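User: Here's a chain of 213 residues. Predict its fold as tokens.
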Amino acid sequence: MADRYSLLQPDVWQTVQEHQRHLLRLWAELGWHDNIAQRHYTEVGCGAGGQLLECLRAGFLPEHLTGIELQPARHAMARQRLPERVALYLGDAADAPIEPASQDMVAQHTVFSSVLDPAQQQRIADAMWRWTKPGGGVLWYDFTVDNPRNPAVRGVPLQRVRALFPQAGLQARRITLAPPLARAVCRAHPALYTVLNALLLLRTHLFVWLRKP
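Assistant: Prediction complete.
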């Protein structure tokens, strides 16, 4: 059986490309056209390094990128895929040795929905905020609804995001067609992803920029 999360699956590559379009749009809105190579980016829960590879492609320098991953197998895969100058840390994100106010963007992609302890969520959020430069921000991408088939995750609504980062200026967009629906319709035809994703009520994830004053 094909890997449900493989980029070769039409629902997966459309989800990934949609997220990437929003991220590129954000970088453009921030005015990073001519100086992205000077920007510093950290990703909490970097997995196998896919998003960090996209950052390299967009123009970030390897020495300005940092990834943090809790799972050893994913950390090892990221180390194999990424240049040595990309800093990778294995362990709890809240304990990562990153200098305060050193990062232009600190990102998380579907990490907080896997952290069920509110106190631990706050520890990670506080660390991310501490690492962020004034004028920079935290990039948040996570789903908002619970998955009844998976008790190991829990949706994070926008009001919780506000509570975790109370000092932030917040810009939020709802994106990403609900994954179970996306898988189903893409089996019929990949173009149906775009058709159904036009309906805001069928989108399940928040793409949020939390700007640090």
